[in-house]
Design goal:
Aspartate Aminotransferase, domain 2; Aspartate Aminotransferase, domain 1; four-stranded antiparallel beta sheet; 383 residues; single chain; seven-stranded mixed beta sheet; alpha/beta
Amino acid sequence: MTIERSVPSVYARLGVRPVIHASGTTTRYGGSRMRPETIDAMREAAQTLVNIDELNEAAGAAIARMLGAEAALVTAGSAAGLVLQAAACIAGDDPSRIARLPDVTGMRHEFVIQRPHRFSYDQSFRVPGGVLVEIGLGRRTMPYELENAIGPATAGVVYLVSPFTSPPGILSFDEVCRIAHARGVPVLVDVASMVPPRENLFRYLRDGADLVIVSGGKGIRGPQSTGILAGRRDLIRAATLNASPNQAIGRAAKTSKEEIVGLVTALELFLAEDEKAEMERYREVCASIVAGLGEVPGIRAVVEQDPVNRVLPHAVLYFEPSWTGPSGRAVQLALAAGNPHIYVQQGPHQGGYFDEIAIDAINLEPGDEAVIVRRLLEELTRR
C-alpha cells in the first residue's frame, strides 16, 4: 500500500523521499530532528565570522560547565571523537608526535578492549595508529586479564556503553577504572547512543572516566555531525591540538562554527527538558503501536524499557516459535522498500527468541504510528 507524504521542496528538487525513522537515531536515516531554536542559532552563527580556536575554547568551556567536566571539545561526530581520544592518548600535546601520526614508533599506542565491546566504530582507534588488544571471552572477562594486558605500550583502556554489549560476566566500569588507574592508564568511554537518559552525560565522568564521547545529534538533537568529547583537561588539550583547524590527524573531521554553536544550544535545551514527560510521550506512542497490532497469532507485542539495552521505550514484536509467517528480516526489508520508507530495528534476540522487530519512537511524528501499524499488519498477514 502506498501512503502519500508531503516532501519538503529542498528534497523534492533532488528526487529524495522522506522516511519514517522508527529505528532510533541512526545516522544512515538522518539522525534526529533539530529543535527550531537550534536551527535559529545556527542560522545566526552563519552570518558572522569568528576565530575557530577561540570558538572551540569558549564552546568547550560552556559544555564543560554544563556537564561538570574539567574540559570539553566539540567533535565532528562520535566516530571523530574516538579518533581524537586515541590521538590524545598516543601523541599527547607534543607537536612533533602529533605531526608523525599515524606513525606511532616509540609511542604508547595499544588500547585494551573487552571482546564483547568490539564494535563497528572501533576502527577509529586505529586511524591515528592505535592497536586494539582484546581480552576476555565472548561473555566473560576476568580482572587478571586486564591487569596482564596493560604494559609499556598501553595508551588507554576502551569501555563501550551500548545496547546488548554488556553481558553480566564482563568487567564492570568501576573495575576497569580501578585496574587501569592503578597502572596510570586512562579509561576512554564511548556512550554515544545512550543519551537520554541525561544521567549518562554525567555518570561516567563523575565515576572515573578520563575521556567520554557522546553524540551531539541523536538524543541531544543537535547537528548530527557533532559530538561531545569531555574529560581531563590535559587530554582535552591534547585532543584539541590533534583536531581541526590544526593540521593534524583530525583535520579531516572538521566542525563548522554553525555546528559548534548549534550543539551548545541543543545541549542547553536538552538539559532543560523534562525527561520524565519525554519518556512518557515515547511510551504512549509505543503502547499505541502494540495496541494497534491486536492479536496476531505467533507474534508477541510488548512495550519494553530498561537501563542497559533499551534506554528509551520500544515497541517490540517477538516472533514466537509458533510463528509461520515471514521472517523479521523479510518484514524489515518490505517496510524499507515501501512508500513511505519505514525503517525499524531487527535482529535475533539474546533471550532465545528466533527473531524480533523493535520500534523506537524518538523520531516519530504524530500519525506515524498509525502508518507503521498498518504496514506491519499488511506484511505480517501477507501470504
